[in-house]
Amino acid sequence: MNLIDKNTKVYYISTFLLFLASTMPHSILTVLFLKKGLLMSQIVLMQSFFNLSMIIFEIPSGVMSDLYSRKKVYILSLLTLIITFFLIIFSKSLFWLSVAYTIYGLANALETGTLDVILINSLKNNETGLQKFLKYQKQISTFSSILGSGIGFLLYFKIGVNIYFISITLILINILLTVLFFSDENKKANENINFQIFKRHIAECISELKEKRVMKYYFIFFGIIQIFIQSHFQLWQKLFLDKGIGEKNFFVMYVLFQIIVIIAYNTNILLINMKKLYLLLISIFLMAITVIILKNNLIFTGIYLILCTIFFIINYYFEFNFNKILSKEKISAITSMKSFFSRIFSFGTLFVSSLLLRKISVVNLFVINVTVVIFVVMYLIFRINKSVRIKA
Questions:
Q1: Which of 21, 23, 37, 58 would be 167's cystine partner, CB 3.0–4.6 Å?
Q2: What's the rounded Cα separation, in Å, for the pair 259 and 264?
Q3: List of long-range contacts for 271-279, beta carbons under 8 Å, 24+ apart
C-alpha cells in the first residue's frame, strides 16, 4: 500500500470519527441548553459566538497550516474540540457556555484545510482520483452525521449531557489514529513563524488570487451559494409547515436531506460541462416557481428534494475545479479565505432574510433567494468560461 492510499484510508476513518463525535449532540442541542437554564434568546446569542470565532480565526488558522504542519494543526483542532466538550458538560452559565462556543469556532477554523489538503495536493494531477476523494469525503461525513445525530437522540434520554463523554472518547481515538498512522511527508523545515512571515504569506496568497483572475469568480460563487444553503437549512421547516407538512415528518426529512447530499456527491463531475450547468440552473428555476403553486405535499417534497440535489451537484462541481487550480503551498490559507468569505455571505443572508420575512412569506422569500442565486451563478459560469477561453 503506497503512502497516499494509506493516508486516504486513515483520513476517511478520522473524518467518520470526527463527524460522529461532533453531531451526536446536534439533534437535542436546544433541549440540552434549555435544561441548563438558558433562554432561547441566550442560546441564539451563545451560538453566534461560534460564527464570530470562525470569522476571526479562519484565515490565521489557514496560514498556520501552510507554514507549520497541517497534521499538527489538525491534532490541535481536536484537542481544542475536547476542551469545548468539557466546558459544555460542566458549565451552566451563559458566560462559560459562550466561551465554550467561541473555542468551538476556533476548533472548526483550525480543522479547515488540514489533512484533506495534504491529500488534495497529492491528487492534483489525477482528476479521477481527486473526484473520488471529494466524493467519499462528503459521503462519509454525511453518513456519519446521520448516524451521530440518531445515536445522540436515543442516548440523550438515557444519559443526558454525558453523551459528550462518548464524543470525547471518539476524539481521543481519532487523535491516536492520526498521530500513529497518518504521515505528513511535507513537514516544514522551519517551524518558527513570526509576524513578518505570517504577513508575507497572506500577501502572497492575495497575489495568487490576483494572478488567477478566474479565482474571484469561484470566491463569488462560494459566497452566493450561501444564499441558497442558508435559505434551505434555516427556512425548510417553516416552509414545510406552511405547506401543511407536520413536524412529525421532520426527522425523516432530515435523513432525506443527508441522503441527497450523498447522491449529489456521487455524480461524475468530469462529465459535466458549461452547457449542462446552464440546463441544471434553468431546471432549478422552473422547480422554484412550481414550489409557490404546488398543493400536493408528496409532489412538493419530491420537487424540493430534486431542487436541493441539483444545487449540491453544482456546488460539488465548483469545489472540484476550485481545488484543482490552487497552488500546493498556499492551498490551506486560500481555502480558509474562501470559508471566511462564505461566512460573511451567510451572515448577510440571514440578516437580510430576517428583514424581508416581515414583509413577505417564507415561500416567496425562498423562491426569491433561489432565483438570485441562479442568475448570479449563470453569470459566473459565463465569466469563468470566457476566462478559460482567453487563457487557452
A1: 21
A2: 9
A3: 272/313, 272/317, 274/381, 274/384, 274/385, 277/314, 277/317, 277/381, 278/378, 278/381
